[in-house]
Amino acid sequence: MKEKVVIVTGGSSGMGKAMAMKFAKEGAFVVITGRNLERLEEAKKEMEQFDGQILCYQMDVRDPDKVQSMVHTTKDTFGKIDFLVNNAAGNFLCPAEELSFNGWNAVVNIVLNGTWYCSQTVGKEWITNNQKGSILNIVATYAWTSGAGVIHSACAKAGVLAMTRTLAVEWGSKYGIRANAIAPGPIANTGGVDRLIPTEEAHQQKINSIPAKRLGQPEEVANLAYFLLSPQSDYINGECITIDGGQWLNRK
Ligand code: HXC
């Protein structure tokens, strides 16, 4: 990872921040994006304890012009891009019959369209420059198990999984670009857990359903992300690795 350039969308908090921290610790130059500049600057300060350079870029992944500017700024600053981690997400619990069209669009635009804008823009950079890069997408197990109250996110994440596999085949064959995904279960100190497991009772039920009997830690996801971007996983392409303490297999 030393002097590799990695973009992490939604990199100022939760899993995104943990992944960015891990990459910075391993010597990468890291670009973190997010909507809140103050939060980005705070995360950057923490990452500056390591040797690598950190660039904050304030943007919403729903804005394709901003995504393109971010990618060009990254290229201008560091001269190249090695890895893209599509981590930015939006979610809230809402019964399917009550979800407004705008609520659906907000989540699908962040998760599915945002991932696509970033992936295509970075991918075109790699293809134009004859460079082999790697994309890592963050999905969720309910993309294939289903889950009550998350129809917008489940459909968007299922789309991201299809995108991962399609790019792995299409860009893998033509350009040697890899695309993989991680499907985390409930991870402590993340927006996902705050939103999807809002009460102490729901929290206890969740813990009981996880064979590991605990939530995951953001650092555990970061270690897996590091492996999936490293040359050690060079033969893994189009794969989705679940990290959930065995939870989805235990659904009753
Ligand atoms: C019903 C809701 C709602 C809620 C928002 N909406 N929250 N509807 N219940 N709790 C509706 C609004 O009423 C509005 O529709 C539409 O959604 C857009 O809302 P805005 O607040 O205007 O949108 P915006 O400011 O763009 O915010 C986007 C967001 C928000 C997705 C709604 O929650 C957000 O910014 N989230 C980012 C952080 C996040 O969600 N992190 C968790 C990701 S975890 P109307 O019709 O009223 O105009 C994850 C996977 C977890 O994805 C997996 C764990 C196992």
From TrEMBL:
Q: Which Pfam families match?
A: adh_short_C2
What UniProt keywords apply to this chain's record, in alphabetical order?
NADP, Oxidoreductase
Q: Name one GO biological process term.
A: fatty acid catabolic process
What are this entry's molecular-function GO terms? 2,4-dienoyl-CoA reductase (NADPH) activity
- Is RNA-binding given among the entry's keywords? no
What PANTHER family does this protein map onto?
PEROXISOMAL 2,4-DIENOYL-COA REDUCTASE, PEROXISOMAL 2,4-DIENOYL-COA REDUCTASE [(3E)-ENOYL-COA-PRODUCING]
Q: What is this protein called?
A: 2,4-dienoyl-CoA reductase
Source species, please?
Answer: Virgibacillus necropolis
